[in-house]
Amino acid sequence: MHTAHILSAHATLDQKSKVIQDVKEQQNKLESERQRLLQCLREINEDRGKMDIAVVDIEREVSELRHKITETTEGDYATAKREVDRLRHELGQPALPSLQSTIEEKRFAYLNERRLNGSEKRPSEGISFAADGQQPPTKKARGRPKGSKNSTKKASSGG
């Protein structure tokens, strides 16, 4: 009778030991997955930080360009245009079109050309990481390699 209890207790102990081992293996797998995901999150946060810096830099450049355009348009260009229009008037020619209408014409022509020819290069592809000495972000391969699913079907059904 005692022998049966001892053997039963040993069997239960072996089962519990296996369960503990399985749970610890699962725990290790989960910790590995957690570490991998934390690393991915760190990389994402680094990329977001780089993009935030890029946005600030581009916004600053846009602001500087707008300031230069305004300064030139209201300064040297306005003075020169008035003088040219005065001379054209003296010669009996019509005044030159406004800068805004010239810009609109060029914008229309550019957009029309892109519409007719299709866009070969998207604007986001023009962002250069080389100026910062950085490599552009690369896509990581996801999923099953091409053809791997079909090759197993052919091998098992080929006869």
TrEMBL record:
Entry coiled-coil feature ranges: 13-47
Keywords: Coiled coil
Chain residue ranges for the region called Disordered: 114-159
Comp. bias intervals (Basic and acidic residues): 114-124
Listed Pfam families: zf-C4H2 (PF10146)
Superkingdom per UniProt: Eukaryota
Skewed-composition ranges (Polar residues): 148-159
GO cellular component, one term: nucleus
Entry-linked InterPro entries: Znf-C4H2
Name used for this protein in its record: Uncharacterized protein
Record lineage: Eukaryota, Fungi, Dikarya, Basidiomycota, Agaricomycotina
